[in-house]
């Protein structure tokens, strides 16, 4: 894409009330626009990153047998009353609305009830199970404070999967397979080495532990204790000896960190399926409870977490797997030879399937370089009268920051095309 | 995809309160699930169709220079007060909600105000214009009645684009270019021959006409008069001699039809940009009004309209451009030779990039055939002991319904792979 055709511009300043680094950077670089606290518009660059994250998650959920659907934002009251999650005194972060006739509705903050209720038509026999269904969708939480940019949204994008099994053993097998898929997601996003599976409180759901996936970060809201050698951790919430003894963590190895929760998975036992009266018939014709699990990843939160982690004092430094473009190509000066060569290279790269942000604007070189650094595209290529003279181009990796003169052919090799 | 891995099953009956043909078919075939009146879940088959329609629209909007963003559902009150569209007495189909602190919010039913307000940072100079921005997103309308299935939703998917120009002439050029893109969308969806551009009332927006795109259909809510030779029409709302005389329609040619509105485009003049105080600075340093247009296509409504139009007494008959799969492959019987050949063909087709719904279920042939017809995948292939004996397979086009025996090689030729 030509930069001159992109409507966003980098901004000198983020809104004064925006205190989080992720939102400041993403707003200044033109990835998001703040509609109100905790509610962000995705601009063209930001939408590309969001879609890349979604696609990685989608591929990994499909790989463990997840089937994608799209549930609704508007939610009926009755199914949430059956599980006692309608009352604001019980669940305090609902957004609610009303039909024209006065009927109260909820705005989806989680989808256990509607998923289970919907599946009653589709999981009646042991032959229909096990089954995993997921969606990637906008969710709504009426947060009192929303000051962490994309890390805690009132309107946010989430992947939520729900699994249904015939027995506890079958459930646990699925649960572990999804946990492995989560590690693959974080690995592909470039945060595998700083993201740990941590035991957390099962909350109202279950007597068992739930699991969080925590990305170490000083801006995180959570405090976790990590046993690095075990590659595991535990949330501060449950750190007492009695509970620790039920885990395979060595207490002596634990180190304290701040962390961002970038995923959580819950065993739901048969709480929701029982409450909504959904059972399966086994091989002998008997009704049996359905054992469920739920698996969340905050997609927009991950975008914020990546912006926190992959950044330096000049701006964003996207990992290649989610970057809005692979190459930032800048032409310097208005020499015909420069423009011709830059145009040619742009065409060649795009023709080879490499996505390029081609900075064809008539602005100072310094402005182009500063914008390139702020936007954080992984590979920067500059064509100037000086590089043309040597039959080369200037190549820099955003992350390492060292420029070198290479040929167009060498560039293609570096990009693997 | 293997049918045995798909969690949906075809249903004998749609819910008793579902009176529209599109929803009945889409529910019975497992494309959507009714959450409440006018609010539908997209199941795996339905999500594929919806995504295919979105992608066609996206490509055509990109081709006329549209830049994709994603606006928010939650909307602040103040920007809608500036255009006098907040008050329920003025706009009667808002869903509204509240922040925990009591602040009233709207749930996006249209996005002129937030788009214009957002763009104030990005269109300040004549150099920034013209500019077209679009999104494909969930929208909410608090309809009193919602009995037409996907044709009139309370929660629905819409593509809305907004254009901004430096002059009326520049606006009109964009407006006509988008109108042509709309015709291309309907052409690719297979309804080009029954979809007409029709003049409609500009409503509160403008003294000029707006334009609708109406697909002829007996279940449509609108009455339109079409001049087939001119390829144009006019909505009943504005059919009086004085107004007709301002158009290029020959009144004598007009024929009356029922129709479904599958798109509408509006000249907005500078109503919203003026109200929100957004202007551009021209070459001479003077502030000038920005002339806007808006361009809607109901994506989920189109899915419903296609289901109404492309159906027969056996079920859905999807056009190839949006079908959830291209090929429905059924194996009959449990002979090893049948299963081996069906597996082989499934692998070969998928390997060639042909999306196949492979009916590997252990059910009666009649059930497979009935489900194939109900689901409406364009090409049906059957492998049975009889076809194996002849070294052939049975091939049927869903639309024409005539089966023939052909070789696997001939099948690949027919599919163009």
Give a structural overview.
2 copies of one chain form a homodimer. In chain A, helix 2 runs antiparallel to helix 5 (168-188) and helix 2 packs across helix 8 (299-309). Chain A has 2 domains: 9-312, Bira Bifunctional Protein, Domain 2 (BirA Bifunctional Protein, domain 2); 327-414, Anticodon-binding domain (Rossmann fold, 3-Layer(aba) Sandwich). Chain A contains 12 helices and 23 strands. In chain A, the strands form 6 sheets. Chain A has a 5-stranded mixed β-barrel. A 5-stranded mixed β-sheet of chain A has the order 20-19-21-22-23, with helices on both faces. A 3-stranded antiparallel β-sheet of chain A has the order 4-6-5. The radius of gyration of chain A is 25 Å and the shape is elongated. Chain A is an alpha+beta fold and 417 residues long. The longest helix of chain A has 21 residues, at 168-188. Chain A is 29% helix and 29% strand. The mean pLDDT of chain A is 95. Chain A has helices at 21-28, 44-63, 77-82, 112-119, 168-188, 241-244, 271-275, 299-309, 336-351, 365-375, 385-389, 408-414; strands spanning 32-36, 39-42, 67-68, 74-76, 95-98, 104-107, 131-140, 155-165, 195-200, 210-216, 222-227, 232-235, 255-269, 279-281, 287-289, 291-298, 311-312, 315-316, 327-331, 356-359, 379-383, 393-397, 403-406. At the A-B interface, strand 1, strand 2, helix 2, strand 3 and strand 4 of A face strand 1, strand 2, helix 2, strand 3 and strand 4 of B.
């Amino acid at each position: 894409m030509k930069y001159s055709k992109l409507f966003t511009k980098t901004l000198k300043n983020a809104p004064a009330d925006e205190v989080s680094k992720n939102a400041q950077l993403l707003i200044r670089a033109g990835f998001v626009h703040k509609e109100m606290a905790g509610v962000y518009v995705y601009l063209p660059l930001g939408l590309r990153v969001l879609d890349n994250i979604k696609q990685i998650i989608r591929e990994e959920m499909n790989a463990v047998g997840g089937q994608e659907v799209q549930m609704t934002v508007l939610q009926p009251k009755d199914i949430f009353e059956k599980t006692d999650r309608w009352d604001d005194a019980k669940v305090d972060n609902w957004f609610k609305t009303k039909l024209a006739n006065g009927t109260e509705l909820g705005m989806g903050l989680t989808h256990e009830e509607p998923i289970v209720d919907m599946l009653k038509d589709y999981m009646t026999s042991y032959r229909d199970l096990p089954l995993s269904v997921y969606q990637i969708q906008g969710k709504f939480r009426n947060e009192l404070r929303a000051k962490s940019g994309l890390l805690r949204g009132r309107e946010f994008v989430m992947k939520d999967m729900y699994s249904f099994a015939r027995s506890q053993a079958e459930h646990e097998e699925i649960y572990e397979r999804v946990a492995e898929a989560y590690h693959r997601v974080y690995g592909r996003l470039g945060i595998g080495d700083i993201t740990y599976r941590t035991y957390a409180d099962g909350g109202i759901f279950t007597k068992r532990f739930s699991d969080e996936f925590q990305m170490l970060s000083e801006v995180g809201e959570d405090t976790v204790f990590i046993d690095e050698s075990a590659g595991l951790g535990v949330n501060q919430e449950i750190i007492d000896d009695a509970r620790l003894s039920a885990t395979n963590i060595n207490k002596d190895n634990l180190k304290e960190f701040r962390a961002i929760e970038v995923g959580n998975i819950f065993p739901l036992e048969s709480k929701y399926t029982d409450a909504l009266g959904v059972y399966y018939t086994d091989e002998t014709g008997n009704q049996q409870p359905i054992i469920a699990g739920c698996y969340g990843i905050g997609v927009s939160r991950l975008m914020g977490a990546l912006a926190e982690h992959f950044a330096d004092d000049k701006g964003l430094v996207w990992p290649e797997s989610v970057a809005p473009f692979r190459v930032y190509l800048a032409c310097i000066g208005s020499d015909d030879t420069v423009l011709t060569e830059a145009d040619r290279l742009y065409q060649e790269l795009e023709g080879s399937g490499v996505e390029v942000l081609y900075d064809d604007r008539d602005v100072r070189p310094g402005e182009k370089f500063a914008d390139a650094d702020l936007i954080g595209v992984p590979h920067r290529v500059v064509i100037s009268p000086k590089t043309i003279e040597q039959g080369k181009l200037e190549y820099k990796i955003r992350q390492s920051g060292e420029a070198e003169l290479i040929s167009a052919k060498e560039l293609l090799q570096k990009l693997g095309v």
